[in-house]
Write a structure and sequence with these properties.
Shape: globular
Structural class: alpha/beta
Family: Belongs to the DEAD box helicase family.
Radius of gyration: 22 Å
GO molecular function, one term: hydrolase activity
Oligomer: single chain
Distance between the termini: 31 Å
Number of strands: 15
Bound molecules: adenosine-5'-triphosphate
Keywords: ATP-binding, Helicase, Hydrolase, Nucleotide-binding, RNA-binding, Signal
InterPro entries: DEAD/DEAH_box_helicase_dom (IPR011545), Helicase_ATP-bd (IPR014001), Helicase_C-like (IPR001650), P-loop_NTPase (IPR027417), RNA-helicase_DEAD-box_CS (IPR000629), RNA_helicase_DEAD_Q_motif (IPR014014)
Pfam families: DEAD, Helicase_C
Number of helices: 17
């Protein structure tokens, strides 16, 4: 079990209560979706660190097997069931009672990608809002407009039976002369959120919940950290519930996260527990860059069995590959940060609706995007630390790798990831990822398409 070394080291009497969540073999469920049930029944162990030293982490108060137990308003329960959720996932089971308890307590929550973190924080925002007050009460920040839009769709779906009012704080969304937002829940990206608060378009006096999705990314000093801190510093200092969620919390942001969300309840996983069980990882040994392209093209029929996402390092690579493939008669789309806002929305929406089956992109959508039909992720280029910001180097970026492959295998489903390596350096980088995660990455021959197809189809069964 994992204990935050920062907390442990300080040893200031903080209760470190570790409760193993073991597989509950007895639990029988009649629901059809057995894979999702496996996830609900437990596929991983979590450790819970309660901010309240006196609390007994084994108390039933700290675990909810049903949504009813949480004391939610019936309109919210209706929304949850309308989304097809029958009971809380593992992370929700542990996190929701802590998130919803009174007085509100901060939360730092970590669990694998696709395990239901979004639903947990959205439900918290909805249940804390006073629908009679027409002022912003909950703010949520995400690292990309695509993710902000997806989170909003969960807010709207889950809040369908309430009178919640929502607004975006993303680029090019509001008319330039907008003077005030009265919506209760605002979801956006940090730059636009800062701008709107500064210009007093968002009045923050009633804000009582502040959520960071992909929190490690949002707090990283090489990335969005400054902007996120700027937003926090403009919020009221008292009675603010700060909620940080991510699948990953690398060491260098852990301390800052604890400072950012003081006295938080913590739910955490070890790094080697972070790979999602259902995702089979492969690699293909390509001869050179051009061979990578040829292999990708030869994979096309496999890529379109379900849907797939191809990750490249550079925007121009994504564009070039997509142009070449399109010219050769394949239907693919490309998405990256250099495209303008409305184009980005059109592209991700078409992909979400299944109109496009292959999306070629960069790290811009490495995190959070939840599309169930995605059963294959290709790392055309492996993610490296030097893509994070100026301080990075040629080491592989294990966190981003986990987030990228986590676009498949959502909520207990099966998925495949394929890494392209093409020289000694990339092979070593992949080897480091394999070691860091303690999971085998299996070789597939590039010259035997039949074997490749057979292996992949087997992995998806
Ligand atoms: N209790 C539940 N029952 C059934 N489905 C659920 C439940 N909770 C969440 N889901 C579904 O599981 C999928 C993954 O959930 P979600 O997007 O919240 O994962 P996440 O942990 O936020 O992932 P990531 O780390 O990639 O952001 C979503 O499609 C969501 O609707």
């Amino acid at each position: 079990f994992f204990v935050d070394p920062a907390d442990e080291g300080k040893g200031k009497g903080k209760a470190v209560a570790e409760t193993p969540m073991k597989k509950d073999g007895e639990e029988k469920d009649q629901a059809k979706d057995t894979e999702a049930n496996d996830l609900i029944n437990s596929t991983f162990d979590v450790s819970v660190t309660l901010a309240d030293q006196q609390a007994d982490p084994n108390s039933p108060l700290y675990s909810a097997k049903t949504f009813e137990e949480l004391g939610l308003h019936t309109d919210l329960l209706k929304g949850i069931y309308d989304m097809g959720f029958s009971k809380p996932s593992k992370i929700q089971e542990r996190a929701l009672p802590l998130l919803l308890s009174s007085p509100p307590t901060n939360m730092i929550g970590q669990s694998q990608s696709g395990t239901g973190k979004t639903a947990a924080f959205v439900l918290t925002m909805l249940s804390r809002v006073d629908f009679n007050v027409q002022k912003p009460q909950a703010l949520c920040l995400a690292p990309s407009r695509e993710l902000a839009r997806q989170i909003m769709s969960v807010v709207v779906q889950m809040g369908k039976f309430t009178s919640v009012q929502t607004e975006y704080a993303i680029k090019d969304n509001l008319p330039r002369d907008a003077t005030s937002i009265s919506a209760q829940i605002i979801v956006g990206t940090p730059g636009t959120m800062t701008d709107l608060i500064r210009r007093k378009v968002i009045n923050v006096s009633e804000v009582k919940v502040f959520v960071l999705d992909e929190a490690d990314n949002m707090l990283d000093q090489d990335g969005l950290g400054d902007q996120t801190l700027r937003v926090k510093n403009m919020l009221p200092r008292t009675k603010m519930q700060i909620i940080l969620f991510s699948a990953t919390f690398p060491d260098h942001v852990r301390k800052f996260a604890s400072k950012f969300a003081p006295d938080a309840n913590k739910i955490e996983l070890q790094r080697n527990e972070l790979s999602v069980e259902g995702i089979r990882q492969f690699y293909m040994d390509c001869r050179d860059e051009e061979h990578k392209y040829d292999i990708l093209v030869s994979l096309y029929s496999l890529l379109t069995i379900g849907q797939s996402i191809i990750f490249c390092k550079h925007r121009h690579t994504a564009d070039r590959i997509s142009q070449r493939m399109t010219a050769e008669g394949h239907k693919v789309a490309s998405l990256h940060g250099a495209k303008d806002a409305s184009e980005r929305d059109t592209i991700i929406d078409a992909f979400r609706q299944g109109k496009d089956k292959v999306l070629i992109t960069t790290n811009v959508i490495a995190r959070g995007i939840d599309i169930m039909q995605v059963n294959m992720v290709v790392n055309y280029d492996l993610p490296l630390m030097n893509e994070r910001g100026p301080g990075g180097d040629d080491r592989p970026d294990v966190e981003t790798y986990l987030h990228r492959i986590g676009r498949t295998g959502r909520f207990g489903r099966k998925g495949i990831s394929i890494n392209f390596v093409h020289n000694q350096q990339t092979w070593q980088q992949m080897d480091q990822i394999e070691k860091a995660l303690g999971r085998k990455i299996i070789r597939i021959e590039t010259d035997d398409l039949d074997e490749m197809e057979e292996k992949m189809k087997k992995a998806l069964k």
